[in-house]
Amino acid sequence: MKKTLLLWIVMLVTGTISAQTFNDGTFNYNVIDVTNNYCEVTGWSVFPSAPVDVVIPGTVMNLGITYTVKQIGNGAFSAHATSGTGRNPANTNVRTVTLPPSVTTLSAHSFRTNPNLTSINLDHIVDSGSNTFANCTGLTGEMNLPACTTFGDYTFVFCTNITKVNIPIATIIGEGALRETGITSMNIPASVSSIKGQLFRGCAALTEVTVKWANPASVTFTTGTYTTTTWQAITPTNVKIYVPAGTKSTYETTQPWLQVGAANIIESAPLSTHNVEKELGAVVYPNPTTGNVTLKMDSANAVDVIVYDLNGKALLTKKVNDAQSEINLSGLNTGIYLFNVKTENGEFTKRIVKQ
Fold first, then answer.
1. Which residue in 86, 78, 82 sits closest to 29, CA to CA?
2. Which whole-number Å values give the CA distances from 166 to 121, 187, 224, 254, in the listed order?
3. Do the Cβ atoms of 174 and 151 come closer than 8 Å?
4. Which of 74, 116, 130, 277 could form a cystine bridge with 348, CB 3.0-4.6 A?
5. Which SS3 state, helix, strand or coil, does residue 339 take?
6. For residue 69, what are the CA distances in angstroms to 57, 65, 94, 121, 131?
7. Tens digit of each residue's pLDDT (9 = 90 or more) over 228-281
8. SS3 38
9. Looking at residue 73, what DSSP letter applies?
10. What spatial distance separates the first Cα and last Cα of the chain, rounded to whole Å?
11. If you ran DSSP here, which 8-state letter would residue 89 be given?
12. 43-53 as b/e, with b when 16 or more CB fall inside 10 Å?
């Protein structure tokens, strides 16, 4: 009886351990929360030998248990030689990535050094880890992270073809998160309370930054690991800083803003056609879209949304009063449309690709 009981215990323990890691024939997984049945993707079961579009499932079955996929694990799709548990040169075959809404965390090095990665949806990412997309030079244009609160160290370092990053509710911006990207402008929301060093290091194309703190000294600004400055390797006096009305004199004496010079610190005027998008903190995503488009603003505002075709014909209109609203484009044909957002004080227009 004792031997039978001991054997049963050994089998139970062995089964429990083996259930912590499993695969579905495509990806490897690791259980990260046995109470809620959460797991993470840790890499490929078999590395791809040709370019591939990666689709991460929202749920996966193992031993009769349904697990929710919550995060991409450390270096799961890293092609970097030494960073990440799933690293492999074959990860350079990753072409596009589709994440389910359940995935809210990208662990360190998740997609590091994937030069052929051209597209990934980040709509539901709350936490972006260190070096998540380091050296992903195939990423281009705007990157939208509307749900991100922790924008980790070196998230987009060396992503030279990214021209804009939107993080409208971020609270933390990590060391060198935008270092040596191709960004031309940046809107830092008032929700940010901590910024590490090297934020704009090597961002040679940067011409303007919009900040919204009533008191810039309330933000923790650290120099970070390498004791380098926000503006390293670029000329800060080439950058214009737009600040809230009545705060110019404060920014002129507060690091690191004082380094751009008093002439380049500009108090934001009331909303106008020129700056309404920045003042609203507006983000329109996803783009391209297959159906819904989300308009997210820093706070609730009354605006009119009008969608035009390229001939100027209005196809649909919607009145919006919330900080976040969805506009359904599923009834429109594939093509390019003009997404016009209008307030009583100004308006802006974005080109939206409907797939």
1. 86
2. 13, 7, 22, 24
3. yes
4. 277
5. strand
6. 7, 13, 19, 15, 21
7. 689 999 999 999 999 988 999 999 999 899 999 999 999 875 444 447 887 788
8. strand
9. -
10. 66
11. G
12. bbeeebeeebe
List, in order, residues 6 or more apart from 337 with CB less than 8 Å away.
Answer: 307, 308, 309, 310, 315, 329, 351, 352, 354
State the Cα–Cα distance between residues 351 and 340, nearest whole angstrom: 9
Q: What is the pLDDT of residue 8?
A: 42
What number of other Cβ atoms are within 10 A of residue 330's Cβ?
9
**16 SS3 class:** helix
Residue listed under structure tokens 């709509």: 123
Closest CA to 145 of 134, 135, 129, 300: 129
Q: Please, what's the largest Cα pairwise distance for the chain? A: 86
- Which pTM was predicted? 0.77
| Per-residue model confidence as pLDDT tens digits over 45-87 | 999 999 999 999 999 999 999 999 999 999 999 999 888 888 8
H/E stretch holding 218 reads none
What's the Cα-to-Cα distance from 314 to each of 161, 210, 309, 338, rounded to whole Å? 33, 31, 7, 9
Residues in the chain: 355
**Residue 160 is encoded by which pair of tokens?**
């030279």
CA distances from 82 to 15, 74, 85, 86, 171 (A): 32, 12, 9, 10, 30
Structure tokens that stand for 128 in this block: 């972006």
Q: Computed from CA positions of residues 130, 133, 137, 142, in that sequence, does the dihedral angle turn out positive or negative?
A: negative
